[in-house]
Amino acid sequence: MPTFASLRKNYASLWASMETRPSKASDINATAARIIANKSRYAEVDSATGVPWFVVGVIHAMEAGCNFHCHLHNGDPLTARTRQVPRGRPVAGKPPFTWKDSAIDAVRYDGLDKVKDWSIERISFELEKFNGWGYNLHHPDVNSPYLWSGSNHYARGKYVADGKWSSTAVSGQSGAMPILRRIMDLDSEAVMTIKLAGAIPPPQSNEEKVPDPALAFPRTGEVGAVAGSIGAIGPIMAADPPSDEPRMTITSAAKTVQASRSLWAIINGWVLGAVAVFTDWLQAAFTWVVSLVTDMTKEVDDSGVLDSAQKLQDWLQIDKTLVLKFTVAAVAAISIIVFVRHLRDKHATEARKS
Questions:
Q1: CA atoms of 320 and 183, how far apart (whole Å)
Q2: What is the pTM of this model?
Q3: Burial of 10 (C-beta count, 10 Å sphere; 0-12/13-18/19+)
Q4: How far is residue 247's CA from residue 230's CA, in Å, rounded to a whole number?
Q5: Is 125 left (phi over 0), alpha (psi -120 to 50) or beta?
Q6: Mind listing the pLDDT tens digit for each residue in 291-334?
Q7: Any alpha helices (H) in 155-298, and if so which ranges?
Q8: At a CB cut-off of 8 Å and minimum separation 6, what does 291 contact?
Q9: Are 226 and 238 in contact, with CB atoms under 8 Å apart?
Q10: Domain extents in the chain
């Protein structure tokens, strides 16, 4: 089996060069926020085992989607002992189990309570061990999506069922390490814990450097340049915020525009808000469908079904900037037409009076 000493440098290199894919940024942000929101519950397991709360939270996200009605071991329901690997956990007690008791059992079963060095490299090692060494042993050319999906270190290839490999399937789940980096962006306690363990500092978020042409949609700054033709919108969206600040979303931009007393700003804000609601709903609906199909389809061949679904899901996760770009252009055109007609009518009225 792989050893920590043999993989440590590789983990450090991957972490230092990791960049988040733009198409996964929203999902990673949401998952990190969900983990932090439940920090107190993860901290209970931390107090009982010594495993940092954010490590427990990341495992919970990966195994059970942060669902507190499921075992931390593998996402099976707490109403019975686990049925998947590891099977029959927890051994002690009778179902239904509390999430805390099950989580403590999962941590101890995998020996995580014996770990003292919670550096980035060690976290990477323990998380990959928790998920299994199949990628490292049998497909060393593919970094484990359990760790690196959603970053520039993973593109395709995954186990679609126990022991069944597909070279074309793409993991739709965001990986543990991009999620952990976002937690560190949002929570100083996580940063201090990892720094005290001697870890290298997290890389700076910079989505634009990810070499992913298929997903290279216009970003906020580009939309601002187009929106600049409309006085009410351009100043608001033309500049990108610093990388350590959250990007202005279409919804927040619409709310800002709506605060203006300009009639056209109000109209523009209403249109942008409507587009935001629609695209949010569309993205959420498709994500739910993909998740449902993935759960129901445990055996997928190399036909690329999940690959195609993932590409469509990625298209829907474009931060709405492409839709916004066309919407702004349309509103600008309508505004110009109405303004020209207004001037023409005003000129005609003045001509009649003279």
A1: 24
A2: 0.59
A3: middle
A4: 21
A5: alpha
A6: 555 444 433 434 444 445 444 544 444 444 555 566 677 777 78
A7: 176-186, 188-196, 220-227, 234-237, 250-258, 263-296
A8: 172
A9: no
A10: 4-196, 217-353
